[in-house]
Amino acid sequence: MLSQKIKTNRVILMVGGLGTRLRPLTQDMPKPMLKVGNKPILQTIVEKSAEYGFVNITMCVNFNASIIRDYFWRRKKNWCKYRLCLEEKGWAQQGIKSAKKSVQVSHFS
C-alpha cells in the first residue's frame, strides 16, 4: 500500500456532519461512509492518504460515530494509525478544537 516515504504529519478528517443535504441516503449512515463503487468514500480517502505516506489519521466524528469506528477498527492495518475525537456538538469548529486536544503539536492556531 505504501509507495511513499512515511510522513509524520497527521491527517485531520472532519467526518462528523449530519449530511442533511444527502437525505435520505444519510438518514442512518454518515456521509463519509456512503459507498462509491464497492467501498466507502472515507476508506478511499484513508487509502490515498497512506499512498502518499500520511499514515497518522485523526477522524473527528459525531453523527453515528460508531459506524465509522467499527468499520475502521475491524479493518485496522499495521501501516495506519487511527485516532478518533468526538465532536460534542457536531460543528466543524468543535471538531477542530477536539482535534487540537487530540494532537500534541504546537502549530494549531
Characterization of the model:
The chain is globular, with a radius of gyration of 14 Å. The protein is α/β, with parallel strands linked by helices. The protein is built from three helices and five strands, in the order βββαβαβα. The strands form two sheets. The chain has a three-stranded parallel β-sheet with strand order 1-4-5, sandwiched between helices. Strands 2-3 form a two-stranded antiparallel sheet.
Largest sheet: 3 strands, parallel
Number of helices: 3
**How many beta-strand segments?**
5
* Strand ordering within the main sheet: 1-4-5
The H/E string reads EEEHEHEH
Which residues sit in consecutive blocks of at least 5 with pLDDT less than 50? 105-109
Distance between the termini: 33 Å
Secondary-structure blueprint of this entry?
Blueprint (H helix, E strand, L loop, with lengths): L6 E8 L20 E2 L2 E2 H11 L2 E8 L3 H10 L6 E6 L5 H11 L7
